[in-house]
């Protein structure tokens, strides 16, 4: 799904394209995952993420964050997108280590951790910590047995601890 509705969504490096079949509807969502972006820091990512601020995405994410029953999760620069849109001021969050300063400059309480759980906002620091984020969300929502089964299936060993507010 995408903020704009059905369309082809190209990956940051242009090597992959996936078809979004529907438009994000925060009133029907349980979990919204905001991915990061590909580019060079510090200016590239801010420019790339800044382009999304002119799309319906910001208002849809604001609507999701306004609904306490909706969990918003981000991977890597996804938290920077929320911060640049002014949606997570005063919240605890993380992002890729090269973007932590930019995150703080946007009013976010920066936590330098792989995964940060701030209630209805859970953020992961980098692409690889996105796997840890997924496993953490499985554990949080469905229990440890589900997370351990998937962790074992994909032969991934979680690293670090989850910082909780």
CATH architecture: 3-Layer(aba) Sandwich
* Overall mean confidence score, pLDDT: 90
Shape: globular
CATH H-level superfamily: Class I glutamine amidotransferase (GATase) domain
The CATH topology turns out to be Rossmann fold
- For the CA atoms, what is the radius of gyration? 15 Å
CATH class: Alpha Beta
How many helix segments? 6
- Class per helix and strand makeup: alpha/beta
Number of domains: 1
Total number of strands: 9
The percent range for strand residues is 15-25%
Ends apart, CA distance between termini: 30 Å
Write out the strand line-up for the largest beta sheet, numbering strands in chain order. Answer: 3-4-8-7-9
The H/E string reads EEEHHEHEHEEEHHE
Question: Which regions contain 5 or more consecutive residues with pLDDT less than 50?
Answer: none
Helical residue percent band: 25-40%
How many strands, what sense, and barrel or not for the largest sheet? 5 strands, mixed
């Amino acid at each position: 799904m995408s903020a704009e509705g059905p369309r082809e969504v190209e990956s940051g490096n242009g090597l992959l394209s996936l078809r979004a079949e529907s438009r994000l509807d925060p009133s029907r969502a349980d979990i919204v995952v905001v991915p990061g972006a590909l580019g060079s820091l510090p200016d590239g990512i801010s420019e790339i993420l800044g382009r999304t601020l002119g799309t319906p995405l910001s208002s849809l994410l604001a609507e999701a964050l306004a609904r306490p029953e909706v969990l918003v999760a981000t991977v890597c620069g996804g938290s920077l997108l929320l911060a640049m849109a002014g949606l997570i001021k005063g919240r605890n969050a993380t992002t890729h280590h090269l973007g932590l300063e930019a995150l703080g400059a946007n009013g976010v309480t920066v936590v330098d951790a792989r995964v940060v759980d701030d209630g209805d906002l859970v953020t992961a620091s980098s692409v690889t910590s996105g796997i840890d984020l997924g496993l953490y969300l499985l554990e949080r929502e469905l229990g440890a047995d589900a997370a351990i089964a998937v962790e074992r299936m994909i032969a991934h060993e979680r690293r670090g601890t989850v910082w909780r507010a």
